[in-house]
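Example (one chain per record):
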Amino acid sequence: MDLGIAGKTALVCGASKGLGYGCAEALVRDGVNVVIVARGAEALEAAAKSLEAVAATHPAKPFVKHVAADITTVEGRAAAFAVHKDFDIVVTNAGGPPPGDFRDWDREAWIKAVDANMLTPIELIKATVDGMAARGFGRIVNITSSAVKSPIDILGLSNGARSGLTGFVAGLARSGIAAKGVTINNLLPGAFDTDRLRGTMEGAVKKTGKDIETIRAARQKTIPAGRFGTSAEFGAICAFLCSVHAAYMTGQNVLADGGAFTGTF
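Predicted structure:
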């Protein structure tokens, strides 16, 4: 399927690996120019080279630019927008807060979680949404978490901060920008085979005393698909939400979890 977005330009955050990289790769495969941002310079450089190889296979020859910066800071966002100003697509993504017991989290831990997983996406939306509306096209996809729908006890920091973003987006997506060709949706990953998942399982090891393979097998059994998802699968969903075909979808929480969530709605 031609997504109809070749030649558009996207900002993809946290794109050096994992789900962010999967999104960037899917967009590049469809001819989208990308500016990828992540904190780790070495991993980001490697990701950029891989994406450049993908870009070379598309007739549009999209460009790939990379910025080693912390997107959760004012300076990091300024660095990203210094490379390119007007984005048609923005994929927000920041590393999730660490797992743990809420009794151990102080105010600083909560502020850091809210800053990264709620306020940073809002700042990126604020910086781009009006330009998108003026041009008549815009796609914003926030990578959040399946925990928004089905909270995970050890991920309280994430549960709280991402739910706050979800509430904000629910209102904004349905405001005047919807009639100007701009959509804002949240993409909620369940268990994908990423460093984040491995970190969560290591937290479960510490909490339960069980070995990592036992934890992994038990987690997979809770997923009707019988496995963890891949970054490429996640990226394909993201790319569709960014496409011309998803123009009538906005303010939605799209769950990608292999069927793990058992709710009807």
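Caption: The helical segments are 18-29, 41-55, 74-83, 107-135, 156-172, 195-208, 212-221, 231-241.
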